[in-house]
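Suppose a colleague, Dr. K., hands you the sequence of a protein chain of 271 amino acids and asks what its three-dimensional shape might be. Before reaching for any lab equipment, you can write down a predicted structure in token form. Begin with the sequence itself:
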Amino acid sequence: MESRNPAFRGNAFYQRTGGQGYGAPAGYGAQQYGAPAGYGAPYAPPGVRPMTMDDVVVRGFLTLATLVVTAALAWALVPTEMAVPVLVVALIAEIGIWAFISFGRKANAPMVLAFAAVYGVVVGIISHTYNDVYNGIVFQAVIGTALAFGATLAVYALRIVRVTPKFAKFVMAAGLALIGLMIVNLLVSAFGGDHGIGIRDPGNPLAYVFSVVAILVGCFFLLLDFDSVEQGVRSGAPAKFAWYCAFGLVLSLVWIYLEVLRLLSYFSGRD
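The predicted structure, expressed as tokens, is then:
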């Protein structure tokens, strides 16, 4: 399956046997299933249990729970003076595991849970840092993220926004553009700019706009996640595809959470 969510791109959940994926010919595509090019429907071969919605719920819960537990441990156990070194190490490990899953196409329970554990350390340290400056902001951000998730799920279930290949390309382009702007902002800040290009400067209205757009894009990625789950269940994807779904959902949720956290900080007074 070539999912509409970039986190699921590729034929990763197909275990290659003799150069073929679960009995599908090499280079299988959407044209075989009447779907748009690049968005073929997956299927489980004989003897392989197909994915169910319960699989996604259970694996998604396990992945998110792992992230929350390690975030809480990092919050409680990492001393302030060690926060930056631990954060840097966790970020490097997170990027490494993310790349291995995304490009090495190895989404399984150990890899996804390891990613969630390391990502939890990053989230825990960042959250603690924000909460030290803006007391109570983390709880507000969690509530905001839950509301965003619920609203996005409702929008998808009611088909208010339909996930099409064109929509998926737009979301992908928007996500890459946001990441590109953040990298440029970081580089400008590192080489002498006090507030980079202004997209993270609380005193610049552009920062508010950027955070709102980033939250919306995160919600759009959730729409792609929901569509991937629905496609997988409907077409009988192998049960292991549920780990890809959990991986994508956690990526989208944490993206939204961190952006909500930053946006709230613009409106909060320092303690």
